[in-house]
Amino acid sequence: MSEVFDTTASKSEVYYPSQEVVDNIAHPDYMELRENARRRPLDFWEEQARKLVDWYEPFTQVLDDGNRPFFKWYTGGKINIVHNALDRHIKSWRKNKLALIWEAEDGEQRTYSYFKLWREVNRFANILKSMGVKRGDTVTIYMGRVPELPIAMMATAKIGAIHSVVYGGFSEQALADRIEDAQSKVVVTCDGAWLRGKTVNLKDIVDEAIHRSPVVQRVIVLKRTGQDINMVADRDFWWHELAALPIAGPYCDTEPMDAEDPLFILYTSGTTGKPKGLIHTVGGYQVFIAATLQYAFDIKEEDRYWCAADPGWITGHSYIVYAPLILGMTSFMYEGAPGYPYPDRWWSLAEKYSINILYTAPTAIRGLMRFGDAWPSRHDLSSLRILGTVGEPINPEAWRWYYTVIGKERCPIIDTWWQTETGGFMITPTPLIPLKPGSATLPFPGIDADVVREDGSSCESNEDGYLVIKQPWPGMARTIWGDPHRYVQTYWSDFEKQGWYFSGDSARKDEDGYFWVIGRMDDVIKVSGYRLGTAEVESALVSHRTVAEAACIGVPDELRGHVIHAFCILTAGVNGDAALVDELKNHVRHEVGPIAVPAAIEFVDSLPKTRSGKIMRRLLKAKVMGQPVGDTSTLEG
Length: 637
Ligand code: WTA
Description:
alpha/beta; seven-stranded mixed sheet; 19 helices; 22% strand; binds 5'-O-[(S)-ethoxy(hydroxy)phosphoryl]adenosine
């Protein structure tokens, strides 16, 4: 299928590391490591686990593969991620090093040393305990991009509970579904969040979600915007009022966990309307994210690092919150949108905070590129050393702009391919690897990735196929919360015979073994890098009284990667006019969230279906894009 972006044209375009990069590399042994890991992957993962994190009790086995595909890593080991992210640094010289620098949309600034962050986490851990949260309980966190979000996550992990962060851009039904599935008795939220100078009323959304999913007993509310909200007596409590009570002392023991205990649930979209709660565990996850960040971004002790994702998605969990803290780094976090209130806000932040590593998504790069080169050119961006990207294939045009205009041809672009399910980077360059715009280059050490045909045979060079992972890795999601069968079905059934993990992506490998990810093969759409399931949007549409049936597809878009195009069959007698289109868009915004709003809604009399009743989205897509419809032999008669 031809997409708007040509991600394949630039195979002969290769960018070699500059002498400056080679001379300054912190981890020059990467290629050797890759080669050793290829021969002995378990030795590699054992070494990383010993080197990067501390264990209360050592593990007795690196990998337990006795019950495939339910792999276990570092069994017998006792560990807590907050011990490695905070506690241990307090006992070292890093105690007074900056852990986090935060800037609000309005320019307010806050800094947290490791010591200060540790105390805040301890306080909030004590608050959670006082609310009755115990080891193994789930806590749903629904907030804007504020430091209290990582604080709430780590406080939960510290006492051995399981966090479920719901992205602050989701709305009522999406939040209610996630609270219900996780059975969270406690929700942590804000009164509101700032976005482009306006406030989003998060607490109202929480109230409505609880109305739909009444399992919640306690809500802790951070005052961020100061707007008027409804507080329910004996259920809702202000964070700052709790923090002033004697129960919120600054010391709290960290709970030693088994390596395979769940650390968090993170919901992601799949092919059915019900979101999948992926489970990541305490031990393997932390080893994997620390190792991948350290090598791929060639981390140095003095780095100022900015991962511009939202903590509510996996990129934020792994690479804003946990991995940088485990590695003892200084991170920067910005509350607002990239181009707000002016197009060079980001570049002024990069200059002001002297950022060395910037990690973002192609959609943000394309958005900023649109404003023109004059905006970044006003700023001294010479502190930048490494640039990263994630979330969707980066089109070579955006790559080149990022490389030349932002990185001044000095900074390698680290294009990281991975997923919520993989926990961390799977295919990625490091600064030493020659780059090709649009390719995530080569698998990380110890990762056995390949592109294969339906029968499992490896594809030829440049042949499209299924992107699979042939060996387990420590950061892999262990299961789907409450639904192990779906986990097996979704990821392990396509190549069941071989026992391989199927990513859901199509890709090709070129003659140098470089991976070129093409995109999703299932009903998942990446809108501005956010992952959405067609089914979620469809069920929101049919929950409106006028819609009898709906089908959604992803259509390529120059700015957002893909946008949603919806087809609706209306109930008898309803008139499909422009006012109804607006009403339906509003409805989706309300139920799922602004990111899920279709760019176009088309009213139709019928939808193409197979004889077994499955909607043929492929045909709808071909129609929208003006392409030949191909084989329609299974179409309903
Ligand atoms: C896509 C985000 C091409 C891919 C960390 C994958 C990418 C999905 C890249 C996972 C990349 C992510 N190049 N495609 N560098 N990174 N993807 O779970 O389709 O939100 O399957 O995780 O994003 O999205 P998720």
